[in-house]
Amino acid sequence: MDNVLIVDGDREHLAAIRKGFKELHHFELLTALNGKTAIETLQQARVSVVAVSTLLPDMDGLDLVAYLTRNHTATPCIIMTEPGNPSPVFPAGAGSDSILSYIEKPFAFGALASMILAGLNLKDEGLAIKGITLRHLLPLAALCGKSCRMEVTSGKQKKGFLYFKNGMLLDALFNSQSGEEVARQMSAWDQIMIAVSPLPEKRNIPRITAELIDIAGAKWKLKEPPAEPLKKKPPTAASVAMPDSRAAPVASSSPAMAPPEPASRLETALKRYSLTLRAIKGYRGVAILSPDGSVLAADTVGEPIDFSSFASEFNNVISYCNKTASQKGFDQCTGVTLHTKKGIIIMMASDVYKYGNFRFIGLMAPDANGYFMQVQMEKAIPQILAAE
């Protein structure tokens, strides 16, 4: 099982995270209250994803990330920004495969879990090997209010320097050139390794006027104003009047006022374990079907998907494949994958003897990794049905 390390100086926050992840059995949770303990843990255990608070008792988040870039270059890292501090927002697609991401405190455990699972998937798909891109790291210097010289190495040939004071970028130096254009050029470097040292006195002069977040090609996430509480209005004559002849008759027990039906155990299990699938790039949804193709539970992202409009037909496809495969001596058909110009459809059958006769249908974008989705569904299906 993968190890995930959470580093935060707030003991109560760490305890809350551990409690929130108590029923999520997709990874082993490790915690550290300071950077020194975190580094010792990284040296002793194989850690797949790290989540780091920007403020630690003995160092800041940038110092620990600098260590990661030098010693664990392909380890996805999540930066937990302090309450009241914004997080950077990168253009659509610019950060989807980044192994350095940001989340604002306080956050829902589901949001952090999704980011952790996305990091694990990047590792599994081999996409984390490219390491951290400098543009994704730059906002961290601002969040930490860093004053330092940052030595940046990319690959075997590129080496440059960035100079910060109180989180502001003063200057950049690369290949005997300096200034804003050099900083913008360096921001595109990936596979970076950084080393942080004190800011030299002679470099304590601002030569760059652009905002650090602008050089990173991002924007700070704006805080939404809190919604005003709804105020009760006194009843009016119109509000208590009897409905006119055009209105539908009012039943004594209106369905609109009835409490919602509780979710089935199958729906609850799917919601819990779909976090793994939601983290896969290109994931659109998954549904659980009965043997006749009826939808028992479903999970979707983005635009809602009406599985019931086509589930029965695709359920017949896997039934036919199962019958044909058995007749031709290929044993039971456990799954079928269809690739179309509009998407990838993955159909899988459960182990009838262990869990009963259930069918699963998953949908992905046409350019997604269908095989990886299949592997993750194979892992999730027994967990979902066992929980059910």
Number of helices: 12
Radius of gyration: 26 Å
> How many individual β-strands?
17
Question: Helical proportion?
Answer: 25-40%
Order of helices and strands: EHEHEHEEEHHEEEEHEHEHHEEHEEHEH
Q: Which descriptor suits the 3D outline?
A: elongated
Round the mean pLDDT to the nearest integer and report it: 83
Task: Estimate the strand proportion.
Answer: 15-25%
Strand order in the largest sheet? 2-1-3-4-6
Largest sheet composition: 5 strands, parallel
**Which structural class best describes the helix and strand composition?**
alpha+beta
Q: For the record, give the distance between the C-alpha atoms at the N and C termini, rounded to a whole number.
A: 22 Å
Q: Uncertain regions: pLDDT < 50 for 5+ in a row?
A: 226-262
Summary tags:
elongated; single chain; 17 strands; 388 residues; five-stranded antiparallel beta sheet; five-stranded parallel beta sheet; alpha+beta
Structure summary:
With 388 residues, this protein is an alpha+beta fold. The protein has helices spanning 11-20, 35-44, 61-71, 109-124, 134-143, 180-187, 212-215, 237-240, 265-278, 311-327, 352-355, 370-387, and strands at residues 3-7, 28-32, 47-53, 77-81, 88-89, 100-104, 148-154, 158-165, 168-174, 177-178, 192-197, 219-220, 283-289, 295-300, 335-340, 343-349, 359-364.
Characterization of the model:
- By secondary structure, the chain is of the alpha+beta class.
- The chain contains 12 helices and 17 strands.
- The chain has helices at 11-20, 35-44, 61-71, 109-124, 134-143, 180-187, 212-215, 237-240, 265-278, 311-327, 352-355, 370-387; strands spanning 3-7, 28-32, 47-53, 77-81, 88-89, 100-104, 148-154, 158-165, 168-174, 177-178, 192-197, 219-220, 283-289, 295-300, 335-340, 343-349, 359-364.
- A 5-stranded parallel beta sheet has the order 2-1-3-4-6, sandwiched between helices.
